[in-house]
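User: My notes are a mess, but here's the protein and zinc ion's SMILES. Can you give me a structure?
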Amino acid sequence: MLEHLLNLLFPDRCVGCRRLTGELFCVRCRSRLRPYPPFPPPPGLDAARVAFCYEGALVKAIHQLKYGRRRRVGHALGDLLAAAVGPLAADALIAVPLHRDRLRERGFNQAAELAVRLCRPGNPPLIEGLARARATGRQARLTATARVANTAGAFVWIGAQPPPPRVIVIDDVLTTGATLAACAAALRAAGAQSVVGIALARSVMLTPLYNRSICVVNCA
Ligand SMILES: [Zn+2]
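Assistant: No problem, the inputs look usable. Here's the predicted complex:
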């Protein structure tokens, strides 16, 4: 109610196109999102899905979420992710954790802001227990091999109980899959049997189907 009233008085500007639409991610920007095609899961994951190509308005929205620290953008994007992936069959959802220094700096974990919107009737609950064992730094300029080395052993399960058998790990942007694979390794070491990765976006440069598209630099 309060949010509705505030939006009437101070309508939201779309983070994608900057128009005063009353929505954080407007209908026009939503209609231009391209679904990301199916792809073989990165090593260590039983399956992986990405909702959208990392391009255009979505890049701006993700930047606003992560670097502009606009938490509400995460909810708008989480709703888009939920609609794109549909019902989820697993025992639990887990957001890729941030290192505590990064969490302090940003104030929230963007993957958790997305994941919380997937907690709908029929979907598994979002649980905690996965933690960063160490900081991995920004990976934007690392090669695929360097990312694997950089993220290996970066996560650890610290839950009081072992993780449930079937887990879905949620992240904002999937690049090589090294981060999700490192999460999967920690979850399997603690007892999980199946680990699926789901991300909001991935650079179109990383799939041959879209290799003629104009692409943006993936700075996740
Ligand atoms: Zn827009």
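The chain has a mean pLDDT of 88.
User: Great, I'll file this with my notes.
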